[in-house]
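Render this sequence as a predicted structure.
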Amino acid sequence: MKAVGTIFRRELRSYFATPLAYVFIVIFLVLAAVFTFQVGGLFERGQADLQPFFRWHPWLYLFLIPALSMRLWAEERNSGSIELLMTLPITLWQAVLGKFLAAWVFAGIALLLTFPVWITINYLGSPDNGAIVAGYIGSFLMAGGFLSIGTCMSAATRNQVIAFITAALVGFIFLLAGFPLVLDFVRALLPQLIVDAIASLSFFTHFDAISKGVIDVRDLVYFVALIAFWLTATALVLDMKKAE
C-alpha cells in the first residue's frame, strides 16, 4: 500500500500543479449550479430536497469525467514517462490503483465543493439530510464508475482526444442502457430477462435509487464491481502495450 500511496500523492499533486484542476472544478461547480437552479428549478419546486441537483450528475460526469481521465495514461505513453514509471519498484496494479484513486479523490473534492447547495436547501427548509448524504455517496460512486471507464480508454491510446471521445461514448452507452425509451424499444424485441439484464448495467438504474436516499447493497456492489472490472481491463491493456 505504500507504493500505491506514493503514486496517489504524486498524481494528486500534479493536478494542482497546473490550471487543469481549477478549470475543472470551476466548470463543474458552475454547471452544477446552472442545472440545479435554472434548469432543475430548485426554488420553483417548493420541495426541500436536492433531486434537481443529483438528477443532472450523470450527464455532467458523462463529459467532465472523460476530460479528467483522458490524461491519466495517454499523457504518460505519449511523453514516454510511462517507461520511467514502470521502472519504479511498483507493480502495474499499484500504478493503476494509485493513479485512479488520485483522480477519484480529486473528483470527490469537486463534488464536496458543492456544499453551498446543501446549505441553501437547509436554510430554505427541512430536507432529509440522510437522503442527501446517500445522494452524495451515490454520486461519488458513479463518478468512480465513469472514471474507471475513462482510465481504461486512456490506457488504450496515446491520443488524449481519442481517449476523451471513447470514454464519453462508452459512458453514454452505460447511461442509455437504463433510459426508458431504450428499454421500451428492447422490450418489444427481447425477453424481459434480457431487458432486465440490460437495465441492470445502467448508471441510471443504480444511481436513481441511491440519490433518493435508498442505499441497496446491490447498487453498491454494482459500482464496486464496475470499477474493479475496468481497472482490471486497464492493467491488461497496459500489460499488452508494454512493447509499443
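Summary. Residues 2-240 form one domain. The chain has one domain: 2-240.
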